[in-house]
Predict the structure.
Amino acid sequence: MPDLKHHPVVADRLAKLRALDCPSHEFRRHVADIARLLVLPATATLETEAVPVTTPLTQMTGQKIARPIVLVPILRAGLGMSDAFHQLLPEASLSHYGVARNEKTLEPEVYFEKFPSDFGEAEVIVLDPMLATGGSAAAALRGLKKSGARHLHFVCLVASPEGIHCLKDQHPEVPVTCAAIDEGLNENGYIVPGLGDAGDRIFGT
Ligand code: PRP
Ligand code: URA
């Protein structure tokens, strides 16, 4: 799994994003910038198929992405990443998965699911900036599998080792792409050094 935090552009945006005094409008822009930079590694293993192309000069064989793509931002904070992915993958459809972490128990509580009925063939790319205990992402992947998704990917900005371990344990076949793997979780289940509550900082709540 690539950890891109030493890439100069990613490192620059991450440092700005993490800062306590980064205002909400700049926070949203940095989230979107890093998400855009993650599109390439997150899609590097998508299957392609040969397609004939006629250029102005000759004929050649090009490649196209073989399967339809469905982007699934986990509400709310995943919405901060979905426009960036949609801009580079405009043919993708967008579904939403609502999970909120109960701040006392740290257990995920699912409150919204809306998927296309036939996405078994699709590449399903799940987006959430934060992978902390891993409970929310694991619940979303479980729900998506129940609804028939078979080609799943998970993309986040900041992960904890605990969250990565949780996904590797519960969904070992799902590739995980993240911009940074941080030190760990504090006693309240927050990623350290992290960036605080991503949803609150994106939406100014
Ligand atoms: C945050 C974050 C993840 C989850 C990560 O969402 O966006 O979904 O917590 O924590 P976990 O890995 O321990 O489950 P939150 O529940 O705060 O909801 P929000 O996006 O609506 O703020
Ligand atoms: N959710 C967040 O938004 N941030 C964390 O550090 C952990 C869970």
